Amino acid sequence: MIADDDLIVHLARFAGALRGRGIDVAVGDEVDAARALALVDLFDRAEVQRALQIALKIRPRDRAAFEALFRSFWTLAQSDPQIREPADRRPASGAVPRSRANSGSGILTDHERRQPATEDSTPGYTRDVVLRRKPFEECSDRDLADMERLLERLAPRWAAKRTRRLKPVRGRGVPDIRRSFRRAASAGGEMLWLARRARALDEPRVVVLCDTSGSMDVHVRFLLAFVLALKRVARTTEVFAFNTSLTRLTPWLSPGKIGHTIDRLSADVPGWSGGTRIGESLMEFVTKYQYLVTGRSVVIILSDGLDRGDTTMVAGAMRLLHARARQVVWLNPLSGDPRYEPTARAMQAALPFIDRFAPAHNLESLERLVPELAA
Question: What pTM does this model have?
Fold first, then answer.
């Protein structure tokens, strides 16, 4: 059998080569591809190619380049006795990674010798992919440090991808045919100049309410690491902690080591790692800080929804938030488990007023939120 690590490394290199050819392959697509390969017969070349083409979302115009790189990266299994299956079980046309087939001798293929040592084709890049998928409850202090470095690199990319909305510009941009003809009509039918549009980079207004009660303890430091990185993209981000009461964290948060920040917060913020009163805390927010929420705001609540308090207050506060905000998002670390059902009383009370309910159990799940902030 092929080792999982070898397959992931080779898949990351393959995805990096696709990006080098101008084919848009996201990290999430790589994760989908790894899962797809776990479901197919790796010794069936056609099945592997079809699985990768679907999981990596290869567009028709990129198919020829994809097929050429596939032929270069994936070859027959016959050259490696360690991964050879019995003849009666092995299809005639097998496909396994070349890097794995040659690992016994340490010999690289001609294609791999020609590949530059880029971020996308190194074991470090593969660790980034694995770190994105690793559940927070399994992460160590070293993982937190690595995640901080990863988030520093990701934040500028988030800024460039925040929105696809186009707005009129005076300089370079794509032609705006409709506006050009409208201008021409007002000038007697003569098109004097071509109107253009470019991608808008409107900065989203984000309000984050993070549950810091005891049940969220293993998740909080990673969630706040993400929030600090997000604050570099959306500089108007406001951050609050809630447990048995509400505390505005924005003045406390500044660039620096998240571990040190968490230690300071846990020592100074009342009720940190203790009980929780979600309803009372949310109601305190809408009473004191409702001016921070407008029709342009996205309110993000990070909580497992575990609370034995008054659910009437939860529903009332959520109703007010939903009426004022552009979008209310509830990210729950527990919902990363496919068996999870939002049966907690506070969660049930909040659900009717949530625009998006999504998991927050690893970095990959949090990253999916970013493109929607300024949509």
Answer: 0.61
